[in-house]
Design brief:
Elements lengths: L6 H14 L15 E5 L2 E4 L4 E4 L2 H4 L8 H13 L10 H13 L6 E5 L2 H16 L3 E5 L8 H6 L15 E4 L14 H19 L4 E7 L14 H12 L2 E5 L23 E4 L11 E5 L1 H6 L15 H16 L2 H23 L3 E7 L2 E9 L4 E2 L11 H12 L2 E2 L1 E3 L2 E4 L7 H19 L4
Parallel strand pairs: 3-14, 5-6, 5-7, 7-8, 8-9
Antiparallel strand pairs: 1-2, 2-3, 4-10, 9-10, 11-12, 12-13, 12-16, 15-16
Length: 451
């Protein structure tokens, strides 16, 4: 689709937004949202006709790109047949979505509880774990994000928790492995793994194993930095949880459905948790949908005992029809395999090549279409390009980098001192290379702030 400039409409959209829309995570008078006119595939455009290659996939959810015709048609068809229905009934789209998801989850996670998004999935997974074990506490990692509802934000380990933390949510945070900024002073992945597992076990010992319902981890943390866990870590967490009767929850809201080059990131590590939370890529965000995939043992807890939780729109027919179409499209078009191939042959090599040329790049990490560049002032000391949770003038170097990327027609994902490379899973090789070329130019601006 060719963007058609229409500045007058754009101005009206922007004026109505500024007058009436209250935006998340924002100081309302300090933001300037772009008015978007349309999107297709890996691109979107504004009312001036400027087109952007989206290296954010929305909020890392358009795994099949924007406006895929088969998914749009499925939503239209479902709307014509049955637009909505209460969750207590068996509905074809809901049943089929659950079947297709269960076929792809690891192990015996064959029951699916539908939610409207990822945060609600985490809320309900936590509730299930507490009810299943009869224990109150949940352990989660620093450098994590699990959502913005009450329990999910308290489980989160980044600064968005701070103003929301009630200090009484039964949450205990611990350090997960991250060799580049190791909290354990490790000098190898193996050592980082061993020390992180010992730290987790020590935390459990001092908190009291009999008080802990669950350990929740993002299989590969997303917003917090795309830190792929070292070999053996997730298997070690699984063993610790088994030993103490703790429920192991993997949060795959961002990493699931092809993002890492497999259906679920857990597939890379050969680990089956007790619960998996999902959302985003399950239907590319076309209609809000999330859920919890539940193991046989936990499902059995609620076989004759009512589960005390539910949502008015759980398993909404439009959302489930979009999920069915999305999963089928991903199979038909080999999109999961495409994500793996692009990561291995284009994004991984291309980003490592950029790191060789740009002193502002301290580390490249990732897999599939799930990558992060750690931007630093000094490669030797690993001092971040901007301070932790920087804002205003302190964040100027990252703001300059972002502006340079947008000037090149690339919409970047920026968090703290990192830029994440998270395009649609079906991005073409040519589009990926276009994005790398734009990043090359933008990183030259970041280089100006290197010590």
């Amino acid at each position: 689709m060719t963007p058609q400039p229409n500045p007058q409409v754009g101005a009206a959209v922007k004026a109505a937004d500024r007058a009436h829309v209250f935006h998340s995570w924002s100081a309302q008078e300090l933001i300037d949202p772009l008015a978007v006119a349309g999107a297709e595939g890996s691109y979107f455009w504004d009312y001036e006709g400027k087109r952007y290659l989206d290296f954010t996939s929305g909020l890392v959810f358009t795994n099949i790109g924007y406006q895929h015709p088969k998914v749009v048609a499925a939503i239209q068809e479902q709307a014509g047949a049955l637009t909505t229905f209460a969750p207590a009934f068996a509905i074809e789209a809901r049943s089929e979505a659950a079947r297709l998801i269960a076929e792809r989850t690891p192990g015996d996670l064959d029951k699916i509880f539908f939610t409207n998004g990822g945060a609600e999935a985490v809320e309900n997974a936590t509730r299930m774990a507490r009810l299943h074990t009869g224990r109150p506490k949940v352990l989660s990692a620093y450098r994590s994000y699990h959502g913005a509802t009450s329990t999910a934000i308290n489980l989160t380990g980044d600064p968005r928790r701070w103003p929301n933390d009630i200090g009484a949510a039964g949450v205990v945070h611990f350090w997960a492995p991250f060799l580049y900024r190791s909290p354990f002073h490790s000098d190898s992945e193996r050592q980082e793994c061993e020390r992180a597992l010992q730290h987790l076990e020590d935390t459990i010992a001092f908190e009291g194993p009999g008080t802990i319902a669950a350990v929740i981890l993002e299989t590969i943390p997303g917003t917090a930095g795309i830190m792929t866990p070292p070999e053996g870590y997730l298997a070690g967490v699984r063993e610790i949880c088994d030993r103490y009767g703790i429920v192991f929850v993997l949060d795959e809201v961002m990493a699931g459905f092809g993002r890492t080059g497999t259906w679920f990131a857990a597939d890379h590590y050969g680990v089956t948790p007790d619960l998996i939370t999902f959302a985003k890529g399950v239907n590319s965000g076309y209609v809000p949908l999330g859920g919890v995939a539940i193991s046989g043992a936990i499902a059995e807890t609620f076989a004759t005992r009512p589960y005390p939780g539910g949502l008015t729109y759980s398993g909404h027919p439009l959302a489930c029809a979009a999920a069915v179409a999305t999963i089928n499209v991903m199979e038909e078009e080999g999109i999961v395999e495409q994500a793996a191939r692009i990561g291995e042959t284009v994004l991984g090599p291309g980003l490592r090549e950029l790191a060789e040329r740009h002193p502002s790049v301290g580390e490249v990490r990732g897999t599939g279409v799930f990558w992060a560049l750690e931007l630093v002032k000094d490669r030797e000391t690993r001092e971040p390009l901007v301070p932790y949770n920087a804002a205003g003038a302190a964040n100027a170097p990252m703001a300059a980098f972002g502006a340079a990327a947008k000037a090149q027609g690339l919409w970047p994902f920026i968090n703290m001192n990192r830029t994440h490379v998270v395009p649609p899973c079906n991005i073409t090789e040519a589009e990926a290379k276009e994005g790398l070329a734009a990043l090359d130019e933008a990183l030259s601006v970041a280089d100006e702030h290197v010590a």
